[in-house]
Amino acid sequence: MAQSLMVGLLFALLMNAQHLLPNALMVSEVRLAHFIETASSNFVWGFVIVWLLSKSGFTRSSNVGEEGKLAAA
Hints:
Blueprint: H1 2-14, H2 28-55
Helix pairs in contact: 1-2
């Protein structure tokens, strides 16, 4: 759960950092609204990615075999 939140926050902040700086193409109200819109959707996207991968068995500690390859779940 903590990993999902961290990846969601990274997706939300790193992929939308350009909206934090003022620019000549967007007025501040549009930039803020677009930041909220894209940051929330990227947070959900990052959260779901980690949740789906952990549900499918792609974890480091439990599915790595002796040779270092992923074992069948």
